[in-house]
Amino acid sequence: MKQKTHLKYADIITITGISERTFRYRMADLKIKYKNSPDLLFKKGHSWRIHVSLINEFNNKHTNKN
Q: Where does residue 13 rank: exposed (0-12), middle (13-18), buried (19+ CB within 10 A)?
């Protein structure tokens, strides 16, 4: 079976558990950061295609201290 190399919005949301708003904020940063790398981040139609290596960019940036 062939592995996915690029993920869609819904895939990112289910894997990371982030909200829509957080996704939009992270995408705003990533669009600037990976502007010159169309193989990692590109828009097809109305949806973004995000390479699986960028999944760590969507994880929580802050952790709670107990």
A: middle
